């Protein structure tokens, strides 16, 4: 491309910007040789080129990277950050629904506890008559003192009795001991020991069975499996009294309670769905 | 990229990036922030930046950071900013050629100013400048030539006045 007076300016600009090839630069210089008047023009353009200043970025150290920057946390510390099961359990109780459920459960426990506290003597009597009342007839004064007040209430409860398997008792003295521990150990351990002691002292087990069992069970005796010490009798009581373990619970109240619990759960569910 | 390689980049390029930015916006602390951001981005993207492109990557990031910064600054303060930028580099009144030129460059529009600075200070060619400033090569050429002619006119004018 030939440089002439129509296009020299662009070539000058490219020249000062150092964007020309060696041959193009030579062409520009040749043009200037031929047209010296344009030398001033080029000089002016060259003056517009800014010479680099020495401006330094002072705080280079701020930009440097150091190995410490990628310091890795020790494993023990990492493990301390892990989510633990305890935290999950905590979360479980913070769940709205679970909170309601646990509140209901706590209420039930409270009520059972209340009943338990009030009714223990009667319940105790219910469960222990099978062994202790019979022992009372054949044994020492020490055990009969304990048993006598319990046996007094027997007639009123005779519809809902839990009964021992008489066969098992007859078969083995050890079996009796086993059954009575199951029946008593949970409720009043000290009574168990005394009654067990009484049983062991007794040398007339057959007599015990014969005298005690008929007294206790007026209606029906359900024979339990060897592993079970009790069985609930279905007597179709109009009072709707329900026994859970050795606790007497008013059937109507329990039904009301379960209805309230289920209503609460249902309401929670619908709220959640909303 | 290792820490050492990165630190070498800091040594080699931070001055140039800083000079380019501080000459453009005229505010040292802000320019330092922009340089810092550019190097942070380089470290974050170190796996994506080819070694031969590191310098222009830094300039590109810094240039765009600067544009964002100027935009924010304009929103916050529309009137004083331009005056202070001009003021910082024109308070010296000795009419040496260099001072005259600096004054003239400060009166260019921001794009022209960046073009001149990238060309004269860093020696980038049109294509590289285009990559940094997101312009085509011919745009760079046209804008830069226009800026040169403006500067030339100003120099002629000022020289006539002082003569």
State the major sheet of chain A: 2 strands, antiparallel
Overall pLDDT score of chain B: 84
Regarding quaternary structure, how should these chains be classified? heterodimer
Fraction of residues in helix of chain B: over 70%
- Tell me what portion of residues of chain A adopts beta-strand conformation: under 5%
Order of helices and strands of chain A: HHHHHHHHHHHHHEEH
The major pleated sheet of chain B works out as:
none
Provide the succession of SSEs of chain B. Answer: HHHHHHHH
Can you tell me the CATH architecture of the largest domain in chain B? Orthogonal Bundle
**How many strand units of chain B?**
0
Number of helical segments with 4 or more residues of chain A? 14
How would you portray this structure in words?
- The complex is a heterodimer of chains A (274) and B (163).
- Chain A is mainly alpha-helical.
- Chain A is rod-shaped, with a radius of gyration of 50 Å.
- In chain A, helix 7 crosses helix 8, helix 7 crosses helix 13 (205-216) and helix 7 runs antiparallel to helix 14.
- Helices cover 65% and strands 3% of the residues of chain A.
- Chain A has helices at residues 8-16, 22-34, 39-47, 60-63, 75-81, 85-94, 96-138, 141-152, 154-157, 166-171, 173-184, 189-201, 205-216, 251-273, and strands at residues 241-244, 247-250.
- Chain B has helices spanning 3-25, 28-44, 54-76, 80-90, 97-106, 110-120, 126-133, 137-162.
- In chain B, 79% of the residues lie in helices and 0% in strands.
- Chain B is built from eight helices and no strands.
């Amino acid at each position: 491309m030939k440089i002439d007076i129509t296009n020299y300016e662009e070539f000058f600009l490219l020249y000062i910007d150092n964007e020309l090839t060696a041959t193009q630069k030579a062409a520009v210089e040749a043009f200037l040789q031929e047209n010296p008047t344009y030398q001033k023009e080029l000089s002016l353009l060259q003056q517009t080129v800014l010479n680099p200043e020495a401006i330094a970025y002072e705080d280079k150290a701020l930009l440097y990277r150091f190995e410490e920057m990628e310091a890795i946390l020790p494993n023990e510390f990492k493990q301390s950050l892990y989510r633990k099961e305890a935290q999950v359990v905590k979360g479980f109780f913070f769940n709205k629904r679970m909170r309601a459920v646990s509140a209901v459960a706590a209420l039930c426990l409270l009520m059972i506890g209340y009943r338990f506290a009030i009714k223990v003597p009667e319940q105790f009597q219910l469960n222990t008559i099978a062994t202790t009342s019979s022992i009372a007839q054949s044994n020492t004064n020490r055990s009969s003192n304990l048993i006598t007040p319990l046996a007094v209430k027997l007639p009123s409860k005779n519809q809902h009795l839990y009964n021992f398997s008489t066969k098992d008792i007859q078969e083995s003295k050890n079996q009796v001991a086993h059954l009575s521990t199951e029946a008593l150990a949970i409720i009043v351990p000290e009574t168990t020991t005394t009654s067990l002691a009484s049983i062991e002292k007794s040398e007339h087990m057959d007599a015990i069975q014969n005298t005690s069992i008929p007294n206790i069970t007026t209606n029906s005796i359900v024979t339990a499996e060897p592993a079970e010490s009790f069985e609930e009798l279905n007597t179709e009581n109009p009072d709707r009294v329900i026994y859970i373990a050795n606790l007497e619970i008013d059937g109507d109240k329990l039904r009301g309670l379960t209805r309230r619990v289920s209503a609460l759960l249902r309401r929670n569910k619908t709220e959640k769905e909303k | 990229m290792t820490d050492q390689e990165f630190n070498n980049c800091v040594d080699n390029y931070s001055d140039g990036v800083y000079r380019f930015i501080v000459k453009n916006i005229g505010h040292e602390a802000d320019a330092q922030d922009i340089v810092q951001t550019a190097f942070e981005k380089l470290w974050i993207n170190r796996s994506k930046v080819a070694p031969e492109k590191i310098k222009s990557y830094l300039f590109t990031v810094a240039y765009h950071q600067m544009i964002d910064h100027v935009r924010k600054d304009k929103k916050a303060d529309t009137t004083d900013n331009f005056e202070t930028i001009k003021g910082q580099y024109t308070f010296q009144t000795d009419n040496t050629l260099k001072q005259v030129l600096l004054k003239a460059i400060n009166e260019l529009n921001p794009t022209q100013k960046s073009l001149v600075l990238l060309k004269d200070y860093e020696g980038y060619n049109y294509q590289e400048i285009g990559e940094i400033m997101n312009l085509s090569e011919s745009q760079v050429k046209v804008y830069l030539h226009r800026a040169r002619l403006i500067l030339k006119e100003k120099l002629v004018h000022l020289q006539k006045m002082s003569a």
